Amino acid sequence: MATFNPTTPTQISLTKSTSTDMVSEKVSFANVGTIKATTLSSDNLVIGGKITATEIVNTGTGSPTISSNSTIDLNAQDSVRVNTSVFKLATMSQGQIDSLVAQTGDLVFNSTVNKFQGYHLSGWVNLN
């Protein structure tokens, strides 16, 4: 691992050097004000491990997407809030809802009957 601790502003470029998009080395920054990463739209930033940040900001256009091959858990000590916009539930037809493996507490908007629905014990119930 290389140690880098500049006393003046410096630009660092990390480039793909193998046939994979994975950087296996640890990259650490100490005593810096801003770290900016610029990638081409066809590239991916792959991070194996934990990302810790006080704020994540999208400065581009479009909607950022968080995706996973499994469950995504949001954990917070106090609450998880949506502050400046609406919270949008999945909109699904009755056929799509019927194909779900639902658990008590799941919520959807059923576009076939135009109702909000929640799953309770063994079936979907209308919430309005």
- State the end-to-end CA separation: 58 Å
Strand content: 5-15%
What is the helical fraction, as a range of percent?
Answer: under 10%
Anisotropy-based shape: elongated
Total strands: 4
Read across the widest sheet, the strand sequence of neighbours is 1-2-3-4
Order of helix and strand elements from N to C terminus: EHEEE
Largest sheet: 4 strands, mixed
Please, how many helices?
1
Write the topology of this structure:
Layout: E1 91-92, H1 94-98, E2 107-110, E3 115-120, E4 123-126
Parallel strand pairs: 1-2
Antiparallel strand pairs: 2-3, 3-4
What does this protein look like?
- 4% of the residues lie in helices and 12% in strands.
- It is mainly beta.
- A four-stranded mixed beta sheet has the order 1-2-3-4.
- Strand 3 and strand 4 (123-126) form a beta hairpin.
- The longest helix has 5 residues, at 94-98.
- It is elongated, with a radius of gyration of 21 Å.
Brief descriptors of the model:
single chain, about 130 residues, mainly beta, four-stranded mixed sheet, 1 helix, 4 strands, disordered N terminus
How would you summarize what this structure contains?
With 128 residues, the chain is mainly beta.
